[in-house]
Amino acid sequence: MKQLIIVVLLVLQASFLFAQQEKRDIRKGNQLYQAKNYKQAEDNYRKALAKSNNKTVEGNFNLGDALYKQKKFEEAQQQFDKIAATSKDKQVLANAYHNIGNSLLENKKLEESIAAYKKSLLNNPNDEQTRYNLSYAQKMLKKQQDDKKNQNKNDKNKDKDKNKDKNKDDKNKDKDKKDKDKKDQDKKDQDKKDKDDKDKNKPDNKDQQQQQPQPNNVSKDDAERMLEALKNDEKATQDKLKNKKLKGAKANISKDW
Description:
Order of helices and strands: HHHHHHHHH
Strand content: under 5%
Number of helices: 9
């Protein structure tokens, strides 16, 4: 019986010593937290929790706060989730869900943060800070949704303007092509007209040939006969002139004595 009492006393003494060391680590962590040395504060809180098998609410809560201050928002959320899953105390639950909402808000998870703030208010409806954070998250969500709607509207307008510009470009291209085709056709018509006018003013080859004197179609023999006849006519003419000269009367010569 005495042995059992001694064992119980030793266990109680050991538990007391661990509790004292745990509190000492938490106090040290709190001092470091106040000095904004959040990483060392985290280390001390983890030491305290190791000695209590993670059962100390204060140690768990302060560890979550130290993680949040280091902007480790996802880890902080997980830490507060553990507290919310195990605690039965309404005030502890309200504070845990409040901090879960803050961690989610920092990670831009607005809908999830709103749900967490609502859970916090279910456990503590009079918490004005949580009510303010809920209102802020709701406004941010509405702005996000409005921005998305405006962006979609702008994208549609851009697509519409783009299609309008494309249609306008296509119309301009068609107009340019038609103008070019018209110019080409006008040039062809003018070239044809110029050619027709030139051909009209140019003498016809057939008429020109008809206006030119046509050489007589004379055979070689006929040409020789004609040449011989011309020679004979010329000789006869010369003989006549000669005879006429010889037969002419003598001219009387009058002298002035």
